[in-house]
Amino acid sequence: MTSNLNSTLKAASAGLAIALTVGACAELTPRAERYVPPPLGSSWVLTQHDTGSYGSGDKTIALQRGERIWHGEKLISFAYPGAALLARPDGAWVTIVGRRRQIVSWNPPVNWDYPLEVGKTWTKSSSVTIHATKRTIPFSYTGKVEAYEDVTVPAGTFKAFKVHATTTLGEDDTNWFSPQLGIFVKRHRVRTAKSARGPGTRDVELASQDIVK
After folding, report:
1. With 70 as the cut, is the pLDDT of residue 6 above it?
2. Whether 40 contacts 68, CB under 8 Å
3. Three-class SS of residue 72?
4. Which are the contacts of 188, defined by CB distance < 8 A and separation ≥ 6?
């Protein structure tokens, strides 16, 4: 009787240990079900370093989260000096507009494939229109979530999805996206020799942030 009881307790303990281990792994596995933008009125500052076809030198860029009606559709606005990126509520980029004219647009709007989780990959097709030249270029892009990790930038240390993305236009980018803030905290953008604009790099880091709670 005692032997059977001991065996039962051991089995129960082993089962509990397995359950706790699996539960802990599940809790540690990050997953972003959908894009959640920073609240309206949030602002943040980025530092940017360019080389090659991106230009040269360093600059600081201040951005603010707003809203805008575009062709009857209510879009998220990420405004920075002289222009604004307009996106759908799911994060899909629609267009970049200047003070007096449309600069760039995507059809269909480009976005990552949610939910995000480590190991996920996807490929999508779109086209980009450069409105100054009225030129439309088709392309496809592939993304892979490589990690969920701590990334340290001048604004602090944040948990972020590390997403590697390539396009048929010769772009090879690594992005660190914070689901808590709803913004990129770091980006390493590369135009390869395949790019029509020529090779170049752009490194962006979050310098400060005032994300409305």
Report:
1. no
2. no
3. coil
4. 173, 174, 175, 201, 202, 203
